[in-house]
Design goal:
about 220 residues, alpha+beta, single chain, four-stranded antiparallel beta sheet, elongated, 2 domains, three-stranded antiparallel beta sheet, Immunoglobulin-like
Length: about 220
């Protein structure tokens, strides 16, 4: 439900909007603006009607200016009269839905997953001074829990091909800094860091991913 503002509150709201948009360098004379709100812009349509509709649509996110009224508002926005020009600018502003349009946004919810028991914290960089050194802090999120030991896997990748692996098993109660070393060199190598509940070669056993994987380049 959307509350329709009174004429006096509409005046104040318009003034605030105009000030934020830098269209209004001085306070609006409320009395004159109240009189302006009662004036007809087309038969049976007052400025007050335009403001009420524009404010309601703006709050709902349904900004749309009637094509028949658009020329009227555009003419008001360039009027030599300061008050008329101000109101026209305000109504055009309220009726505009800038990019990205709030009613034309698609959220792909599959991109957002539940918080996992652990988080892999790193600066995303490999130390390439002598071979490859990967450092990652494994921290509990305190949102969900996991009992027993965890297995942290540092997977060395060369392009899209797994090249080597270092697996460290530890019962992480709070946070642990873990380091993996690889002898390989080359800019085409990077490391993926995973946290699993276990590590085995049983194809019929599915490992549980306990953290969002991180990449170190």
């Amino acid at each position: 439900m959307h509350r329709i503002l009174s004429a006096s509150n509409l005046v104040k709201k318009c003034s605030m909007i105009l000030k934020r948009a830098h269209w209004l360098p001085i306070p609006v004379p409320t009395g004159l603006l109240s009189l302006m709100l009662q004036q007809e812009v087309v038969p049976d349509v007052t400025v007050n009607d335009l403001v009420v509709n524009a404010m309601a649509d703006h709050y709902k996110g349904d900004e749309s200016i009637d094509p028949q009224l658009l020329p009227v508002l555009q003419q008001m926005a360039v009027s030599p009269d300061d008050l008329t020009r101000m109101l026209g600018g305000a109504l055009l502003y309220l009726g505009t839905d800038p990019e990205p349009e709030d009613n034309n946004i698609n959220l792909i919810l599959s991109q957002y997953t539940a918080v996992k028991p652990f988080a892999v914290i790193s600066d995303g960089k490999l130390d390439r001074t002598s071979g490859l050194k990967a450092v990652a802090n494994i921290c509990r999120t305190a949102v969900t829990d996991h009992e027993g030991s965890e297995v942290v896997v540092f997977q060395l990748m060369k392009g899209s091909t797994p090249f080597n692996i270092v697996a460290l098993q530890k019962d992480i109660n709070n946070s642990e800094e873990l380091i993996a070393y690889f002898n390989e060199t080359g800019d085409d190598f990077f490391v993926k860091v995973f946290v699993f509940d276990r590590l085995n070669s049983d194809l019929g056993s599915v490992q549980i991913n306990l953290a969002e994987a991180q990449i170190l380049n």
